[in-house]
Amino acid sequence: MNGAAAILKALEKQGVDIIFGHPGGTIMPTYDALYDSPIRHVLVRHEQGGVHAATAYARTSGRVGVCMATSGPGALNLVTGLQDALMDSTPVVALTGNVPQALIGTDAFQEADVVGITQPVTKHNIQVRNVNDIPRVIAEAFYIASTGRPGPVLIDFPKDVQQAEFGGTFDVEVDLPGYKPTFKGHPRQIERALEALQKAEKPILMVGGGAQNAASEIIAFAEKSGIPVIPTLMGLGAFPGTHPQCLGMPGMHGSVAANRGIHHADTILAIGLRFDDRVTGKVSRFAPNAHTIIHVDIDPAEIGKLVKTAIPVVGDAKWVAAEMTKGAQKLSIAKWWGQLEEWKSKHPFAWKPKPHLQSQEVIQAFWEATQGKAVVTSGVGQHQMFAAQFYKFDAPRSWINSGGLGTMGVGLPFAIGAALARPNETVIDFDGDGSFQMTLQELATLKKHNLNVKIVILNNGFLGMVRQWQDLFHAKRYSEVYLADSNPDFAKLAEAYGIKGITLTDKTKLHETVKEVLSHPGPVLLEARVYHEEGVFPMIPSGGAAEDMIIENPRETVAG
Amino acid sequence: MRHLVSVLVQDNPGVLQRISGLIARRGFNIESLAVGRTHQEGLSRISLVVSGDDAVLEQVEKQLNRLIEVIKVTDHSEPHVERELALVKVSIAGMEERLEIKDIAEAFRARIVDVAKKSIIFELTGDSHKITTFVEAMRPYGLLEVMRSGAVGMSRGEQVLKVREKKAV
Q1: Size of interface A-B (CB pairs under 8 A)
Q2: d(C-alpha A499, C-alpha A400), whole Å
Q3: Which among A116, A127, A301 is the nearest to B66, CB-wise?
Q4: Contact at 8 Å (CB) between A128 and A137?
Q5: Is A110 a catalytic residue?
Q6: What average pLDDT does chain A have?
Q7: Which chain B residues are within 8 Å of A301, Cβ to Cβ?
Q8: Is pLDDT above 80 for B169?
Q9: Facing residue for B17 by CB, picked from A119, A124, A176
Q10: Staple A136 to which of A172, A438, A497, B38, CB 3.0 to 4.6 Å?
């Protein structure tokens, strides 16, 4: 057995059943071994598609996603996806080939310092220099990626290591003296947290991406205590969007109830989130009335990083939420609820109907037609925010988007990874005409595996979010955001790949078209030509606070 | 505020790059960094001098702890020993004040480790402040080269930075 075969055997031992990858010179020994391996390989058309697909596979399945690339350009194409997985705390293991050790440092063909370059974009990375280390390094990589705060780990295999005769053992033990994540929250801290909540008059529970594996515990805690819940963009689905205690997401394009709720709250319990600037706005003006912030996170470095935390609880969200539920009591906060209900009913997410087809109604129609049960991905921009606002996610691991890095182009590769993890479910990629064109080569991957993915391009002919900022903050100087004059015919493009393509322009045909898309087996691309100057509201301008929230589009108020 | 931080790390290839990269990336201000092997095989120890308030120091420690190869981080706020080594080359070409610089050197307990026709090298250990003062005292006489090692430190008494004993399984 050579090193390459040992790599695949070690992956099998980790339970890997699928790898997203693209071959090339230095990873060829492993591709050769793959020929005899039971592990399924999905050939992507660009390595970036592979790492994004692995990310979505991980987030929708709760397992580790695996991607593979060759040295140099192949490995470097993973960089964006690794940072994306890092910022959204996703367990991914990336395997890369490298030039033989004798050539390392000589500027060899397709050589790059991949370990050096990917150091800041991974949770950990390592180059294997001895073939017999392969099983141990792979076991460590999976352990590091999937425990504590999950994240991407890259393993670099010089070609000679893949070719060398393996003489080691697969019976390995993970022993990392510098890596001991704290799983159980401190009981006294949990007690203090419960006491603080009991005393609170205006408590709020915020849940983030770290709570995606704790949904049932969060629901139990919320229902037992009666606390109002705000899931962040990454936390959508960790608490049901249609639950009466849900106030919607907070932040730049969050709901009025959520942002005002946080602004007026006296006590905030935050579970599995990191107070991103898109959530807090100007951090010095965030939650100014909260005398007590309780922060539950498995990563101690997140606690106190941005907001002052009165009660830190280092531990796993699921474990801590379950413990807290045991000690939870019904909170007497009827008055607070009265206020929140008023904001909630007065300012739901809404749009002003126009004669044109509108993004919001397209998403709402898909939500209704799928009864909120689809797995949804998106690119980055206005369509992403509309999807977060109008598709009410009731189940965890059902909303896969790029929250931290804001990577345009993730929608389609995310959908591919999601569809392979959850083959019996409908996957919808709400995409933008700008975002979609960044990774559209993966239509070939989609076709090849005939996945149940419905791509819905909300084509407004603009880089809509940038256009919105130019409209509001740059005197409508639309610098380099116009796409309509050179966009392709998206339906025809899909047809060119052998995928069913549909174009929708007529508002009155919306519901029948949605039905047509969903009832067609296998992949479909729907191009919805939507109103070109729509804005996402409410909006807290960058660097602002809840009080600066613009609730309705000021342009439309003026225009009547 | 100036803090001396000791970091115990696994002596893997690239570990220094990982630490210096993290410090640069997170925008921490460091005055010096010194690294060397310990008595335990596979373990190195790094001394960092960091400036910042308590919140910055807390983030430095927490972010360092996130690195897989970092085993332990400690801030020497307790009584500790701190030393830095410096080599200072001073010009003595045509100098009439040789005795004077020897007197200064003696006051700082600096040793002469090299004498040439036109220059002299002093070796000096002490805390960073002492070394800075010595360098400044020598400046008027004609500094040629200064090499400082960066501060290294250790807690006084029984407190030690070590790998936790492996728990019996």
Answers
A1: 43
A2: 23
A3: A301
A4: yes
A5: yes
A6: 97
A7: 59, 62-63, 65-66
A8: no
A9: A119
A10: A172
**What type of residue is A237?**
G
Residues near A181 by beta carbon (within 8 Å), at least 6 away in sequence:
A147, A148, A149, A298
Contacts of B70 in chain A (CB under 8 A): 178
Residue B94: per-residue pLDDT: 78
Nearest CA among A518, A530, A460, A529 for reference residue A491 = A529
Q: Which position has the token pair 């409508």?
A: A476
Give the pLDDT of residue B162. Answer: 82
Which pLDDT score, from 0 to 100, does residue B167 have?
47
Give the burial string for A142-180 (b: 16+ CB within 10 Å, else e).
bbbbbbbbbbbbbbbbbbbbbbbebebeeebeeeebbbe
Which residues partner with A187 through β-bridges? none
pLDDT above 90 for A85: yes
CB contact under 8 A, A178 and B25: no
Question: Exposed, middle or buried: residue B41 (CB in 10 Å: 0-12, 13-18, 19+)?
Answer: exposed
Q: Is A465 a catalytic residue?
A: yes
Rg (CA), chain A: 24
Among A458, A440, A439, smallest CA distance to A384 is for: A458
**Those residues with Cβ within 8 angstroms of residue B13's Cβ, 6 or more apart along the chain or in another chain:** A127
3-class secondary structure per residue, chain B: CEEEEEEEEECCCCHHHHHHHHHHHCCCEEEEEEEEECCCCCEEEEEEEEECCHHHHHHHHHHHHHCCCEEEEEECCCCEEEEEEEEEEEECCCCCCHHHHHHHHHHCCCEEEEECCCEEEEEEEECHHHHHHHHHHHHHHHEEEEEECCCEEEECCCCCCCCCCCCCC
Query: Tokens at residue A116, please?
Result: 């050096």
Angle (deg, nearest 10), helices B128-142 and B98-107:
180
Integer-rounded Cα radius of gyration of chain B: 19
A261/A410 Cα distance (integer angstroms): 32
A323 in catalytic set: no
Q: Is B160 on the interface with A (CB under 8 A)?
A: no
* Partners of residue A305 in chain B, C-beta under 8 Å: 59, 62
Q: How many C-beta atoms lie closer than 10 Å to residue B16's C-beta?
A: 15
Are B58 and A304 a contacting pair, CB within 8 Å? yes
Q: Is the distance from CB of B48 to CB of B32 less than 8 angstroms?
A: yes
Euclidean distance between CA atoms A26 and B53, whole angstroms: 48
d(CA A113, CA A98): 9
For the stretch A479-505, pLDDT in tens is: 999 999 999 999 999 999 999 999 999
Which chain A residues are within 8 Å of B21, Cβ to Cβ?
119-120
pLDDT tens-digit readout, A414-464: 999 999 999 999 999 999 999 999 999 999 999 999 999 999 999 999 999
CA distance A248 to A378: 18
List A83, A87, A123, A159, catalytic entry: A159
Q: What local confidence, expressed as pLDDT, does residue B165 receive?
A: 55
The predicted model scores a pTM of 0.96
pLDDT tens figures, B85-137: 999 999 998 777 778 899 999 999 999 999 999 999 999 999 999 999 999 99
- Concatenated DSSP letters of A343-376: HHHHS-S-----SS--HHHHHHHHHHHTTT-SEE
Annotated active-site residue A495? The verdict is no
A143 lies within 8 A of chain B by CB: no
Interchain contact, B66 vs A144, CB within 8 Å: no
> Of residues A87, A249, A465, A549, which has the active-site annotation?
A465
Burial (Cβ within 10 Å: 0-12, 13-18, ≥19) of residue A25: middle
